[in-house]
Amino acid sequence: MTNGFTEYLLRIDPIFLFSQWREEYRQLVDQIFDICTPTMITMGEYRPTNGLINHIKTRFPSSKLIEVEKNLKLDAGKKRYHRETREMLYGYIIEQIKKRNKSAQISLCKECGTIWKQMGLNPVGMNCNCM
Q1: pTM of the predicted protein model
Q2: What is the pLDDT of residues 72-91, one digit of tens each?
Q3: Where are the domains of the chain?
Q4: Using H for helix, E for strand and C for coil, what is the string for the chain?
């Protein structure tokens, strides 16, 4: 606690695409803001390494994460959703956050400056609460 103010650094990670994702992430954002007002919210999409995927296949062969992985593409050593999908996911969640707090500081974990700009975020310094 600093000067009577509590900082809440929050992370929504990993973000998944699934049938009811819009409703579920809207509810999540509502629940967050019903409890606190985060100083910073960092988002990151599901981005497994090959090692993690192999581990999941070995230990949890019926995991739905194996099906998710089939729709990902290799990008910088990790599998990721296609750029358009990431922008859709981030854009919707950012919209929900801004409805609750227009001044919320939002960052994207492990995303390039181009996507930050596309989401209306300032990529200068590209700070994320994991750094």
Answers
A1: 0.88
A2: 999 877 899 999 999 999 99
A3: 9-46+81-118
A4: CECCECCCEEEEEEECCCCCHHHHHHHHHHHHHHHCCCCEEEEEECCCCHHHHHHHHHHCCCCHHHHHHCCCEEECCEEECCHHHHHHHHHHHHHHHHHHCCCCEEEECCCCHHHHHHCCCCCCCCCCCCC
